[in-house]
Amino acid sequence: MTVQQEEVSAVEARQEQQARSVSAATISSLVVLAALVLCPFFISGFQTFQLNLMLIYAIAIMGLNLLTGFNGQFSLGHGAFYAIGAYTAAILIDTFGVSYVWTLPAAGVICFVSGFLFGLPALRLEGVYLALATFALAVATPQMLKLSILEHWTGGVQGIVIRKPKAPFDLPLSQDQWLYFFTLFVGLLLYWAARNMVKSRSGRAIMAIRDNPLAARSMGVNVALYKSLTFGVSALFTGIAGALGAIVIQFVAPDSFTFVLSVALLVGLVVGGVGWLPGAIVGGAFIVFVPNIAEEISKGLSGAMYGLMLILLIYVMPTGAGGLIRTVTDRLTRR
Amino acid sequence: METFIQQVLAGIATGGIYACMALAVVMIYQAIHHLNFAQGEMAMFSTFIAWQLLQWGIPYWLAFGLTIVISLIGGYVLERSVFKPIHNAPVLSHIVIFIALFAIFNSLAGFIWDFTIKPFPSPFGNAPLFGGGLIGGHQAGMIIITLVVLLILFAFFRYTRVGLAMRAAAANPESAKLVGIRVGVMTGLGWGMASAVGAVAGILIAPVVFLEPNMMLSILLYGFAGAVLGGLSSPGGAVLGGFTVGVVENLAGTYIPVVGAELKLPIALFLIVAVLVFKPTGLFGQRVVQRV
Predict the structure, then answer these.
(1) Which range among A102-111, A252-261, B82-91, B97-106 shows the weakest confidence by mean pLDDT?
(2) Which of B128, B232, B237, B252 places its Cα 20 to 30 Å from the Cα of A128?
């Protein structure tokens, strides 16, 4: 065989391999989807509520992943956008009597604008400096929400209580189940949007900025614009998750949105896999369930148990669930 | 004018605390080039060890020295045992490990010594010195010790072989390895020293804020802010940054109407972010130039 022929056959083999792993990926995502759809019919109302929270955190993590995983900008402050989304929804429902469905686009738009605006000064900061600036945002959020001037809208320290929506069209679903499917639908829509965005021309520009900003700029990518736009889109995702969170929990208060939330989102991102969108579900599950497991193992030492589990997890999969799956499939397809 | 001077002095007094912590932050940053989120909890744990030693009747300065030695060894062991296996993992995984350590130390301290607030003795007494009682004996002693630690660190990094090797290992691990520096040991040593400086900071801070597992949370944040403001590559800048944060925080609380008192912390942070936007490497940091 000549060199060219060898190259051709190598390319063909790779394409075949890709095709096989693509079909495996489609099958496994269909299985996961089916499990997510069927689950609420077999578990209790509280468990459905927990699963719902998992999906909501997954949406927020997806937003963070677009920013950190695909654009390479750190954020320790996404809890702030989650809070903005949650308060937008709560205020719209409570003060203006808007239907919960319409609070989602509103929360998305408001978070997109605030994320874009925050992204502008963040352009000048990199690495730890950006981490600190976003961390400052996260720390400032609960204090801003408690401000006495805004108390008329935000309810101050007390927060806002909202009512849980019922299933429409007389569907035979409990409130928890209906909200779960509502969240699942929104989540799938956003996942589809994120996937298409990442695969598009803009997605390639965003990733080029992560890999080498200088090269991206010399290829004609408007680095400043794309970075702030990504910040905005990322905040949009997280804000919608926040709005869903407010509707499902029926309550917002400043102390639910401390920096602990931002840190949890970051942990979820890393556990799920940085730069791998479906990992968000794994991350969401980690945020919701692992602290409970830690508490069950030992009441007094729950924090230490949580930390130990986290360390073990990073030892087993240093690049998150996404990295683990990638290595496993690589091994299997190579055989 | 009098209130202004009073507020500045009060700011310097609290700034001393932040300066201590900022110094510890910069130390570890020099050794590993990450911000360590568990640093505050490590310092808190060391302070609890010092408290335990004092409870057992060991004289203050002996306990002080012992705690520093224990922290030095503890920091080294921690790095070698927890971080060595994953030294190739991405940065974000390291940050998650910091968060895990944070949870572990916080929960362990609460489990061993419970969450009640404990007073911690000061070797300097609390007699007011000057500034109308705003800067007491302890605050003055704290500032002096911070400056002494700063001097020792400066001399260590500037004039000793080990200090030079540590700087080399942090700045360029591969080249450092090629000239025969044991990079892993140096990183461990950096952790040890950072943990020792943290212990000093904790012991100095504890008489002011009292001892409990959550004492370091906001202080670490101000310490980070001070360190970043001064520039993460400059220990002197970090100390100055710490004092600046203290003063700015106090002045913002006094002079900005309506929201000032409520938003002391966010305003201080906002000012720091504003400084960073105009001078991204901090006030005294060096710009890192990379070859493309």
Answers:
(1) B82-91
(2) B252
